[in-house]
Design brief:
This protein is α+β, with helices and mostly antiparallel strands. The protein has two domains: 143 residues, Jelly Rolls (Sandwich); 77 residues, Arc Repressor Mutant, subunit A. It is built from seven helices and 14 strands. The chain has a four-stranded antiparallel sheet. A four-stranded antiparallel sheet has the order 4-9-6-7. A four-stranded antiparallel sheet has the order 11-12-14-13. Helix 5 packs across helix 6. The chain is elongated and about 60 Å long.
Length: 250
Amino acid sequence: MPGLTVEPAMHRANSAIAAGVMLAESDNLVRPLPGLLDGLNRADCNRLRAIGREKALEAGQLVWSQGDTQAGIYLISEGRIRSYYAAPSGREVTLAYWFPGNFVGGPDIFGTGPHMWTSVAAERSRLTFMPGPALRRLALESPAIAVALLDALAFKARCYSAMAQMLGTRSVTERLHSLLIFLSHVYGVKRGDEIVVGMPFTHGDLANLIGSTRQWVTVQLARLQEEGVIRYDRSVISILDLSTLAQQAE
């Protein structure tokens, strides 16, 4: 079944989040990846931290804008970062939400080309900026750091390839239903006969993730609510009939 690929259940206490949230044709196409620093020894972690500069962002503040010149990468320590592409028409498509352990920036991680999309703090966040030239020197000096960066870039490439497949082969209705199912699997908290998605998503958030419009999502969520499949209240989604939702997604 097509769906949204995400890291293991966010509602579990102290769960580590490294993959992020994005559309994918199948959850087997995009595998969760440990955080950038997870596979490094203490010495290499310290070398990366030594070139880093801390930066705090409030919700809505830009990390960079589409077209800005790249200067390096930002490693997420706390919070949630949304990366999106803005078309000339002004329409936005969310590429991913990234969480602690991930970095944003690329594909030119050493800071040579323009940013291909915008990244913005979806909530209060703390990041560590690693300048491209210094990061390049460390990659040349440490095979472990170079491999960690390559693994992370390969993971992101799989994510965006899977997203392109999903957008190109599935209807917008299938994408919405599959998104709701996977959000329930990962963020869902069982409460009686319903599953409450433990992270708020606005109509705009959902629309940007599936490549649709906020108005269309609003109509579809209202229809699903009338049918008794979901309940939507102040950005909180409750799945009332998961089996029906799964049948519609297929």
